[in-house]
Amino acid sequence: MAFKLPELGYAYDALEPNIDARTMEIHHTKHHNGYTSKLNAAIAGTDLENKSIEDILTNLDMSNGAVRNNGGGFYNHSLFWTVMNPNDRGYLSGDLKDAIEAAFGSKEAFIEAFSNAAATQFGSGWAWLCVLPGGKVEICATPNQDNPLMPGVSCTGTPILGLDVWEHAYYLNYQNRRPDYIDAFFNIVNWNEVEKRYAAAK
Ligand code: MN3
Fold first, then answer.
1. Which of 35, 55, 132, 134 is deepest in the core (most CB within 10 A)?
2. CA gap 38, 53 in Å, rounded
């Protein structure tokens, strides 16, 4: 069964002024759609064809560039759209708040550390908040379309919050000002979704 490009769940202009509609539309219909169709082409007729994306990435042969790049791209963007919400964002609370305060001291210190990881990822990549078994959380960044589910990357755990820092994610509106885009992201983080992912992963 082929993977399908997921719907955003909101309009392309719903995240303005933090992320502009044109960027969202191109990002979804061109970039994410491209990863999805190339992933399907890469797994067609192989033993990966009927596996979940999590299963494929967790057991990935990292030398398989087509599945690494396009499977990562499919998964990462599918997560990314859900952790933003223009309307019902909730707020950091409950067990996730406790875990973030235990790891970083405060929500503000967490945002600073996450923003630093996103800003200093050289070239294209992602910043992540991950959950380890037992519920501890940690921050990391990965290059290209790699993510923490993949074997041998710089961090482990289940990603519950991800930020795309490829230029295609922000360049139309922010040009080279990646830090401004990162600041804007925290205006639209959907904490309800991150908390739901934390509860499922810990
Ligand atoms: Mn992207």
1. 35
2. 14
